[in-house]
């Protein structure tokens, strides 16, 4: 099993280019099922999760070609089946996003239950309620879910989500674009990735309005055509590098970032004394001047503080003076990194969904486990300022979602090595 060896590094310095967003590209790829002809997606990051989505789409009969670096072309004209293979679906939760488009395009879909993961149980009830509201019959048995549209096709409906789930909003949007009549998704997720998906669907001929607000209106159309689209920059990758600059007291220029998308992260870093400024070339993060201080964080759906940056931010908070509180409200089990950070000398106590961090600790390198994608990133950040060597195992989690991770960190002067055991 591959590992990362991270050693205490000089303050990071230089520039980093942010890749296309994992959480945007996966639904965009699923949406390409809806077009009867070719779609081109640009700025596709080279990630394990993208590879899994490619395998799933290929298994459905779609043809995928890489026409240039980071450019993929999807041809769904010969879709062969509407059943997604168990072995592929179980590899990645986001694979369930093929359900909405398959149901809309073929009137039926069969997909394995995606299952939970370390950060939470992650049920799919809201996705299924949405499909049912559109008139589909939903059969859940033997670990798979089958959805069947009524004879005349799906019918537009008003759907209120109990929670603004990102995946449910996306799946329902993709099912509703070809339904008869108008669909309203209320209490919809407002994440930038939802807006990106809506923009792509509209380029394909769909009629969506209101993406990025809590109510999305979708007027069904008869069919969709191919389209070209560039994936938005990854705001979580950008946040991770902002924190890398902050924790090492460095100076980083982050290129290809949308300032609005990282506003909650910027606001919290500024509260801690980090300078974050937008310039002509990108976003400057400078942490070498002031004494940094603590802050409190509560994760929330967008535009609140992103749960995906909670663990990297916590790594940073262990190093600043003062005590901080972190409250996780989106996932019920997203503190797996706490035990690992404590093994490195951090002082973090948890009570339910609240973590109390006594900052200003000197961290020590240790053998730690990347329990999930962002927990892994948090441990790398901690390793950059810890005395000695931090050995991080199970790094396949990190490689699911960060493109050219080691290369980008090394370019900034980080002391990080990937080794195969
Ligand atoms: C591929 C992708 O885009 N992943 C992101 C997406 O995940 P994902 O789309 O899975 O996240 P959701 O917004 O759906 O989940 C948020 C919460 O809602 C709950 N829930 C969700 C659906 C459902 O049917 N029932 C239900 O109870 C989940 O268990 C969780 O507690 O949004 C999360 C929240 O910003 C991010 O952390 C993930 O990085
Ligand atoms: C939780 C995450 O992703 P996923 O929904 O793909 O598990 C993440 O990107 O931090």
Describe the structure.
The active site is at 117 (proton donor). The modification 2-(S-cysteinyl)pyruvic acid O-phosphothioketal is found at residue 117. Residues 6-408 form the Enolpyruvate transferase domain. InterPro entries: Enolpyruvate_Tfrase_dom (IPR001986), Enolpyruvate_Tfrase_sf (IPR036968), MurA_subfamily (IPR050068), RNA3'P_cycl/enolpyr_Trfase_a/b (IPR013792), UDP_GlcNAc_COvinyl_MurA (IPR005750). Its EC number is 2.5.1.7. The radius of gyration is 22 Å and the shape is elongated. A hairpin with a 2-residue loop joins β19 (347-351) and β20 (354-358). It has helices spanning 22-31, 48-59, 86-89, 99-106, 125-133, 166-176, 192-203, 235-247, 263-271, 310-317, 336-343, 373-385, 396-401, 405-411; strands at residues 2-7, 13-17, 38-42, 63-68, 71-75, 108-112, 137-141, 144-148, 158-160, 182-186, 207-209, 215-219, 228-230, 251-255, 275-278, 283-286, 297-298, 323-327, 347-351, 354-358, 367-369, 389-393, 415-420. It contains 14 helices and 23 strands. The chain has 421 residues and is of the alpha+beta class. 31% of the residues lie in helices and 25% in strands. It has a 4-stranded mixed sheet, with helices on one face. α1 runs parallel beside α7 (192-203) and α11 packs parallel to α12. The chain folds into 2 domains: 2-19 and 233-420, UDP-n-acetylglucosamine1-carboxyvinyl-transferase, Chain (Alpha-beta prism); 22-230, Enolpyruvate transferase domain (UDP-n-acetylglucosamine1-carboxyvinyl-transferase, Chain), CATH 3.65.10. The mean pLDDT is 96. The longest helix is centred in the middle third of the chain and has 13 residues, at 235-247.
């Amino acid at each position: 099993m591959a590992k990362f060896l991270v050693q205490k590094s000089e303050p990071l310095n230089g520039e980093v280019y942010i890749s296309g967003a994992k959480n945007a590209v996966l639904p965009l790829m699923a949406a390409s099922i809806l077009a009867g002809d070719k779609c081109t997606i640009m700025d596709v990051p080279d990630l394990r999760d993208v590879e899994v989505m490619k395998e799933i789409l290929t298994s459905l009969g779609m043809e995928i070609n890489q026409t240039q670096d980071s450019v993929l072309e999807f041809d769904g004209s010969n879709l062969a089946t509407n059943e997604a293979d168990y072995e592929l679906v179980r590899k990645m939760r986001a694979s369930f996003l093929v359900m909405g488009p398959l149901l809309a395009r073929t009137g039926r879909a069969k997909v394995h239950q995606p299952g939970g993961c370390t950060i939470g149980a992650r049920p799919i009830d809201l996705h299924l309620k949405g499909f049912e509201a559109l008139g589909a019959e939903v059969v859940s048995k033997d670990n798979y879910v089958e959805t069947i549209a009524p004879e005349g096709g799906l019918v537009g409906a008003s759907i209120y989500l109990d929670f603004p789930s990102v995946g449910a909003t996306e799946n329902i949007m993709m099912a509703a674009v070809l339904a008869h009549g108008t669909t309203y998704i209320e209490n919809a997720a407002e994440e930038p990735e939802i807006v990106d998906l809506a923009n792509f669907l509209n380029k394909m001929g769909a009629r969506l309005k209101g993406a990025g607000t809590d109510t999305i209106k979708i007027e069904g159309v008869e069919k969709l055509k191919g389209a070209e689209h560039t994936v938005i920059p990854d705001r979580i990758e950008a946040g991770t590098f902002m924190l890398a600059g902050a924790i090492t007291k460095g100076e980083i220029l982050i290129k290809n970032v949308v300032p609005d998308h990282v506003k909650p992260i910027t606001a919290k870093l500024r509260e801690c004394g980090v300078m974050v400024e937008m310039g002509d070339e990108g976003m400057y993060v400078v942490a070498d001047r002031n004494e940094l201080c603590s802050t409190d964080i509560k994760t929330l759906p967008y535009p609140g503080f992103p749960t995906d940056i909670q663990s990297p931010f916590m790594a940073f908070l262990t190093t600043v003076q003062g005590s901080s509180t972190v409250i996780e409200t989106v996932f019920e089990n997203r503190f797996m990194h706490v035990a690992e950070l404590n093994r490195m000398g951090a002082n973090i106590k948890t009570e339910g969904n609240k973590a109390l961090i006594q900052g200003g600790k000197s961290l020590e390198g240790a053998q730690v486990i990347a329990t999930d994608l962002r927990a892994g990133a948090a441990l790398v950040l901690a390793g950059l300022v810890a005395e000695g060597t931090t050995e991080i195992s199970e790094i396949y989690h990190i490689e699911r979602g960060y493109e050219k991770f080691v290369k980008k960190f090394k370019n900034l002067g980080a002391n990080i090595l990937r080794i195969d055991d």
